[in-house]
UniProtKB/TrEMBL annotation:
<dbReference type="Pfam" id="PF00990">
    <property type="entry name" value="GGDEF"/>
</dbReference>
<dbReference type="GO" id="GO:0043709">
    <property type="term" value="P:cell adhesion involved in single-species biofilm formation"/>
</dbReference>
<dbReference type="InterPro" id="IPR043128">
    <property type="entry name" value="Rev_trsase/Diguanyl_cyclase"/>
</dbReference>
<protein>
    <recommendedName>
        <fullName>diguanylate cyclase</fullName>
        <ecNumber>2.7.7.65</ecNumber>
    </recommendedName>
</protein>
<dbReference type="GO" id="GO:0005886">
    <property type="term" value="C:plasma membrane"/>
</dbReference>
<dbReference type="InterPro" id="IPR029787">
    <property type="entry name" value="Nucleotide_cyclase"/>
</dbReference>
<dbReference type="InterPro" id="IPR000160">
    <property type="entry name" value="GGDEF_dom"/>
</dbReference>
<keyword id="KW-0472">Membrane</keyword>
<feature type="domain" description="GGDEF">
    <location>
        <begin position="243"/>
        <end position="376"/>
    </location>
</feature>
<keyword id="KW-1133">Transmembrane helix</keyword>
<dbReference type="InterPro" id="IPR050469">
    <property type="entry name" value="Diguanylate_Cyclase"/>
</dbReference>
<dbReference type="GO" id="GO:0052621">
    <property type="term" value="F:diguanylate cyclase activity"/>
</dbReference>
<keyword id="KW-0812">Transmembrane</keyword>
<dbReference type="GO" id="GO:1902201">
    <property type="term" value="P:negative regulation of bacterial-type flagellum-dependent cell motility"/>
</dbReference>
<feature type="transmembrane region" description="Helical">
    <location>
        <begin position="177"/>
        <end position="200"/>
    </location>
</feature>
Length: 400
């Protein structure tokens, strides 16, 4: 079924559209995943580290000022503690940044400042250790520490600005993410609807093609192909049930004269009108088909020859007396009918058709507008003198 779908122009178009939608959905899905990762990033720990680092800077300055007024080893140790604390905060901030991969590119320009500040804090630690031995180095230590503190304040302010900008971007990403999710849902629904419509269209096209293969376009009756299939199954069933099966061949008399006199459009109307009448007069269990230009076939399962002859004569009389309402013809068309019966389903359709065709030829040879029957020679008649009765019945009906 999939191959047949792809062979159809609409199927190929639907497949291309589905592939495009799938590709767009994949791209959109990738964007949604990336946006979700970016929108779900939590910078609380990083901001806390920056705030703590900013608080350590004025504490270091206060320790330096106190140490310059009253130099002592205790004050220098206090200064050394805050220098170590500043360096620890710096390391924590760098570790937090590395955990946020979407922030790394935004603060890449600060990498050198981090390295420089780390080196200066290490140098400041060495100077602090030297100042414990030489108190006169406290003043230079204070100047250097002030410069380092200024560098820290600038760096941490830049980081806070970047985190603030990233938070703003997060809100924008969340808005775009909601739009992207909605668009993705629309794409998926569109793809599902498109595929469903394509499958429905294919199913309808298949039904139409199947119907065209089995029916006659002009009359809407079944064609010869369908009749042969149904007849084969009916003969098999008749053989199994040992039941009779009758076949009627119907031909419109002098149909060529109708076409020549009134034109082919009128001839087509006659075919449609007679087809409609035959369909209304036949049983639901019968199969009516147009098998040629003006030739029809009626397959009647579970029908003996006597019943088939009565049905055939009823059809003949109805066609003869039923006027063509919307056509101005000199006389109503008539039909000739050939009837045959297979008593037990032991014949093939071709054999059964051959006997009905011979009976039809006999009806035309005897003057048309009549019914004739011809039974297979190997088929015993369930009625005594059945053919003679049938011929007498038809002659009496014609005379009346």
């Amino acid at each position: 079924m999939m191959r047949r779908f792809l062979r159809q122009p609409g199927g190929r178009l639907a497949s291309i559209f589905a592939v495009i939608l799938c590709a767009m959905s994949a791209v959109m899905g990738s964007y949604v995943y990336s946006a979700c990762q970016k929108a779900s990033a939590d910078y609380t720990t990083l901001v806390s580290d920056i705030v703590l680092a900013q608080q350590a800077t004025p504490q270091l300055r206060a320790a330096l000022e106190e140490g310059s007024r009253q130099p002592s080893s205790e004050h220098i140790k206090y200064i050394d503690y805050f220098i170590s604390l500043s360096k620890q905060h710096l390391n924590n901030i760098q570790s937090s940044i590395e955990r946020h991969r979407y922030l790394i590119s935004d603060v890449e320009y600060l990498h050198n400042h981090f390295s420089e500040l780390s080196n200066r804090l290490s140098d400041l630690t060495q100077q602090s250790q030297q100042a414990q031995q030489r108190p006169e180095l406290i003043d230079p230590l204070q100047r250097v520490a002030m410069e380092v503190g200024g560098a820290q304040a600038w760096l941490y302010n830049q980081l806070l600005e970047e985190v603030r900008d990233t938070s703003v971007q997060q809100r924008l990403v969340m808005q775009r993410l909601s739009i992207a999710v909605s668009a993705l849902l629309v794409l998926m629904v569109s793809a599902a609807i498109t595929l469903c419509l394509a499958v429905i269209h294919l199913h309808r096209q298949r039904n139409v093609m199947h119907q065209l293969m089995l029916t006659d376009e002009l009359t809407g009756l079944y064609n010869r192909r369908h009749l042969v299939n149904v007849a084969s199954a009916a003969l098999t069933q008749a053989l199994r049930d040992r039941a009779p099966l009758s076949l009627l061949l119907l031909d419109i008399d002098h149909f060529k004269q109708i076409n020549d006199t009134y034109g082919h459009p009128t001839g087509d109307k006659v075919l449609r009108q007679i087809s409609k009448q035959l369909r209304e007069l036949s049983r639901p269990s019968d199969t009516l088909a147009r098998i040629g230009g003006e030739e029809f076939c009626l397959l009647m399962p579970n029908t003996a020859t006597h019943d088939a002859l009565q049905a055939a004569d009823r059809l003949r009389r109805e066609i003869e007396v039923n006027a063509m309402s919307d056509m101005e013809l000199h006389a109503n068309p008539t039909i000739s009918i050939g009837v045959t019966t297979c008593q037990s389903g032991s014949l093939t359709f071709e054999q059964l058709y051959s006997f009905a065709d011979k009976a039809l030829y006999q009806a035309k040879a005897l003057g048309r507008n009549r019914v004739e029957s011809l039974l297979p020679p190997t088929e015993p008649s369930p009625y005594s003198e059945l053919q003679a009765y049938g011929h007498t019945l038809i002659r009496e009906s014609s005379d009346s």
